[in-house]
Design brief:
Largest sheet: none
Order of helices and strands: HHH
Radius of gyration: 16 Å
Helix content: 40-55%
Number of helices: 3
Strand content: under 5%
Distance between the termini: 36 Å
Shape: flat
């Protein structure tokens, strides 16, 4: 029962991600298109001032993979 519930939630999450990305699929995100060269590469470092829990990392990874499977994301912790 737990496995089928997890499969259901995973399916819902995947569908929500695809619907959110679909919004800009054909016309593109206007702000991004106007301000960022499509050949530009990016890098981000996010640091927390205090100890805590980073929520949503698995969702972020799913979004990255849906946008471009070649995106690399590395997470470190102290």
């Amino acid at each position: 029962m737990e496995s089928s519930r997890n499969d259901f939630y995973e399916g819902c999450r995947s569908r929500a991600i695809m619907l959110a990305l679909e919004e800009d699929r054909y016309t593109g995100d206007i702000t991004t298109l106007a301000t960022i060269d499509n050949r530009q590469e990016g890098r981000a470092v996010i640091k927390a001032k205090e100890d805590g829990i980073a929520g949503g990392v698995d969702v972020a990874m799913q979004v990255f993979a849906a946008c471009d499977p070649s995106i690399e994301a590395v997470f470190h912790r102290r």
